[in-house]
């Protein structure tokens, strides 16, 4: 998600939850709602001059996320520090003020890599998040005495997941792969890290690569969504007009089913970039596109009532 100038105007005019109006019922219906935010929430700072695009949202974005039903947001993205340290710290404060937890970034290394545990009914779900960017840009990532997003140190992922496992029943890991400089294809590096997370004990891996939809892998009876693409981005997208909400079903403390809900994120007829559910042929075409991307990864997505479905382990 990214709330740029056009979305800010919509939120000023129609209220902070306006971007979510078309899918509000689905977001609020979930026991736990998770998303990824690109950029800062602040009115302070200057844009990073080394980047062609810098993202920042108004403080009302935090209120909108909370009122739309989001419980937790990943800040492990390439745009987390676009407006500097003060804007980053504002982001943490605004989310906390509105009761939205954040993961994958923090005031120091420990906070950035710390699992966030959310309990729902009788199940504890742990979230971890990382940004797999340029590891040589040490000033960007969180360190013992440095704010920023978490970098996934390959040798230490097992330790992070073991800590999360000690406190939870289900572990979900979000991994941001960065910009599209490597193209649309899933890279060997993505597979290496995603499978390492599953091997270390994660139950589900959800990836993001800017503006790109990638396939789904079934690996050791666990799911890896390499990139779910955009949700709310504030721009008309010709390449990927459809996106997805992902609904995970947990039964008896096992992840048993993934439901993939097709949504419009870019309507050619109206020019709108606000999400709303797709149905009938449009929904089936969207699921078919994701299915094609997933076939070479050994995953078959069934279609049921305009949504995609992947059945996993049966409850005990």
Defining traits:
single chain; 316 residues; alpha/beta; Purple Acid Phosphatase, chain A, domain 2; six-stranded mixed beta sheet; five-stranded antiparallel beta sheet; 8 helices; 18 strands; globular
Word description of this protein:
By secondary structure, the chain is of the alpha/beta class. The protein has one domain (5-238): Purple Acid Phosphatase, chain A, domain 2 (4-Layer Sandwich). The chain contains eight helices and 18 strands. It has helices spanning 5-14, 24-29, 60-68, 84-97, 109-112, 157-167, 188-200, 280-295, and strands at residues 34-36, 40-41, 56-57, 72-74, 101-103, 105-106, 116-120, 123-131, 148-149, 170-178, 204-209, 216-219, 222-225, 242-251, 254-264, 276-277, 302-304, 307-311. The strands form five sheets. The chain has a six-stranded mixed beta sheet. Strands 14, 15, 16, 17 and 18 form a five-stranded antiparallel beta sheet that branches. It has a three-stranded parallel beta sheet with strand order 1-4-5, with helices on one face. The radius of gyration is 18 Å and the shape is globular. It starts with a helix and ends in a 5-residue tail after the last strand. The mean pLDDT is 91.
Short description:
Helices cover 26% and strands 27% of the residues. It has helices at 5-14, 24-29, 60-68, 84-97, 109-112, 157-167, 188-200, 280-295; strands spanning 34-36, 40-41, 56-57, 72-74, 101-103, 105-106, 116-120, 123-131, 148-149, 170-178, 204-209, 216-219, 222-225, 242-251, 254-264, 276-277, 302-304, 307-311. Helix 6 (157-167) runs parallel beside helix 7 (188-200).
């Amino acid at each position: 998600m990214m709330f740029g100038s056009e979305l800010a105007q919509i939120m000023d005019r129609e209220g902070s939850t306006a971007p979510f109006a078309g899918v509000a019922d689905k977001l609020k219906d979930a026991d736990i709602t998770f998303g990824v935010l690109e950029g800062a929430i602040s009115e302070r700072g200057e844009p990073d001059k080394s980047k062609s695009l810098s993202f920042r949202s108004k403080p009302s974005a935090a209120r909108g996320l909370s009122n739309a039903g989001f419980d937790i947001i990943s800040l492990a993205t390439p745009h987390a520090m676009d407006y500097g340290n003060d804007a980053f710290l504002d982001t943490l404060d605004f989310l906390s003020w509105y009761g939205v937890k954040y993961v994958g970034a923090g005031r120091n290394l420990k906070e950035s890599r710390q699992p966030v545990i959310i309990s729902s009914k009788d199940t504890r779900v742990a979230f971890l998040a990382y940004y797999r960017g340029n590891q040589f840009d040490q000033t960007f990532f969180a360190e013992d005495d440095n704010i920023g997003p978490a970098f996934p140190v390959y040798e230490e992922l097992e330790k992070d997941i073991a800590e999360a496992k000690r406190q939870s029943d289900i572990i979900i890991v979000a991994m941001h792969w960065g910009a599209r400089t490597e193209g649309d294809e899933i890279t060997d590096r993505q597979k290496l890290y995603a499978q390492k997370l599953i091997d270390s004990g994660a139950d589900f891996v959800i990836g993001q690569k800017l503006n790109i939809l990638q396939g789904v892998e079934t690996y050791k009876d666990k799911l890896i969504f390499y990139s779910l693409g955009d949700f709310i981005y504030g721009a008309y997208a010709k390449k990927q007009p459809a996106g997805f909400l992902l609904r995970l079903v947990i039964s008896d403390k096992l992840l048993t089913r993934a439901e993939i809900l097709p949504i419009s994120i870019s309507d050619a007829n109206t020019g709108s970039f606000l999400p709303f559910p797709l149905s009938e042929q449009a929904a089936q075409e969207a699921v078919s596109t994701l299915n094609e991307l997933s076939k070479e990864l050994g995953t078959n997505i069934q279609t049921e009532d305009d949504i995609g479905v992947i059945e996993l382990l049966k409850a005990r």
